[in-house]
Write a structure and sequence with these properties.
This protein is of the alpha/beta class and 154 residues long. The chain contains seven helices and five strands.
């Protein structure tokens, strides 16, 4: 099975590990000349909370999710890294329930592989708070590489 498209799904907590995520993706994308899709899904509440910081006047109904994703950390840093390494990439944003939108994005771009980050949580925390990464892994239409960073806390 060829790996033509890799979806790197990121969120704001991934800013602290952007270099490690990029390195993980480059291990695959570089030798295989894959295209990387940097995907960032966000909720309406998240958008409204950070809208002014991002320089947007538009309310959530009038926003281009791809444009918002471009301005959210760590997307810009990842794009710069892939550009410097000569890896083809594109940026995709989705607005809605994060795990569902990331899976939808993987389907839309016909991803052959996904890379997602996560953090250490106890089973009780997962039961009470849920786990976006776990939902993505369980619903993914392709193999998933899970990058766990024990230092990332929410």
């Amino acid at each position: 099975m060829a790996i033509d498209t890799i979806l790197l799904a990121v969120g704001p907590m991934d800013a602290v590990r952007a270099d490690e995520l990029a390195e993980t993706v480059l291990e695959i994308a570089g030798p295989l000349e894959s295209t990387v899709v940097i995907g960032h899904a966000f909720t309406e509440d998240e958008y409204e909370e950070f809208r002014e910081d991002l320089g947007f006047d538009a309310r959530v109904d009038d926003v281009d999710p791809d444009e918002v994703a471009t301005k959210r950390p760590p997307v810009g840093d990842l794009a710069e890294t892939f550009e410097a390494e000569g890896v083809d990439y594109e940026i995709r944003g989705e607005l809605g329930e994060v795990s569902t939108k990331v899976v939808d994005m993987a389907i839309d771009v016909d991803a052959d592989r996904m890379v997602v980050g996560g953090r250490r949580r106890s089973p009780a925390e997962k039961a009470v708070l849920g786990s976006v990464s776990q939902e993505i892994i369980l619903q993914a239409p392709c193999p998933v590489t899970y990058f766990r960073d024990l230092d990332v806390m929410e």
